[in-house]
Amino acid sequence: MVPSIGYNKTRTAVFISGTGSNLKSLIKFSRTAKSPISIDFVISNNSKAKGLDYAKKFKIKKKVLNFKNKNLSEKELLSILKINSIDMICLAGFMKILSGNFIKKFKGKILNIHPSLLPKYKGLNTHERALNNKEKYSGCTVHFVNSRLDSGKIILQKKVKISKKETKTSLAKKILAQEHKLYPKAILKAFNL
Ligand code: GRF
Predict the structure, then answer these.
(1) Distance from the CA of 5 to the center of ligand 1, in angstroms?
(2) Residue in 113, 117, 121, 181 to alter for ligand 1 test, most ligand atoms within 8 A of Cβ
(3) Would you call the peptide bond into 36 cis, given omega within 30 degrees of 0 as the criterion?
(4) Structure pTM?
(5) Mutate to test the pocket of ligand 1, among 142, 176, 182 (most ligand atoms within 8 A of CB)
(6) Strand 88-91 relative to strand 10-16: parallel, antiparallel, unpaired?
(7) Cα–Cα–Cα angle for 40, 42, 48, rounded to 5 degrees
(8) 142 within 8 A of 111, measured Cβ to Cβ
């Protein structure tokens, strides 16, 4: 990724489905001088996503698209992104799978955060599976998005130790705290900063 020249930050949309704690950390990061991105749009597939409150709080445009008809929703999405000059997408707890066609249109410009040490535990229920397999470590990964689920080029990972008494909930909490630090770092790395 190439940083914009001068003061123009790369206009970015964040896609969410739920709580939006990563969205919040990305908004805070985007408003620091060192950030190469600005967050200019929030997309959610879920009108009840708590994360939408952050869009309101930080005065960022938002749109809910239900993705029931993926084709139609993605068409609308592409037009929204174009009208708003969005040049980069950060997926942050977004629970819908984007089509190959959509991903092609933003080739190399979509990032995702995943709560495991990829390539281990792609998909859902990562913490439960790591615990069931008696892993000693888990963590989180920021990667570029390609057409295969959770399989794009890895940008950065953070390892987290699994304690003896670890539960799904405690592990999720521990990893989420690391995600909030990892995503901004990975963005800097993606921009070679
Ligand atoms: C995070 O654990 C993220 O890695 C996963 O979904 C969770 C989203 O959390 N894909 P939040 O909505 O950012 O709080």
Answers:
(1) 31
(2) 113
(3) no
(4) 0.96
(5) 176
(6) parallel
(7) 155
(8) yes
Q: pLDDT of 164-186, one tens digit each? A: 999 999 999 999 999 999 999 99
Residues 6+ apart with CB under 8 A from 147: 100, 103, 104
Bridge partner residues of 63 (DSSP): 43
All domains in the chain, ordered by first residue = 10-190 (3.40.50.170)
What amino acid positions are annotated as catalytic residues?
Answer: 114
Ligand 1 centroid from CA 10, angstroms: 23
pLDDT at 36 over 90: yes
- What percentage of the chain has pLDDT greater than the value 70? 97
What is the Å distance from ligand 1's center to 92 Cα? 6
| Short-list 96, 14, 12, CA closest to 55 | 14
Ligand 1 site residues (CB inside 6 A) read 16, 18-22, 51, 92-93, 113-115, 176, 179
Q: What is the pLDDT of residues 112-138, one digit of tens each?
A: 999 999 999 999 999 999 999 999 999
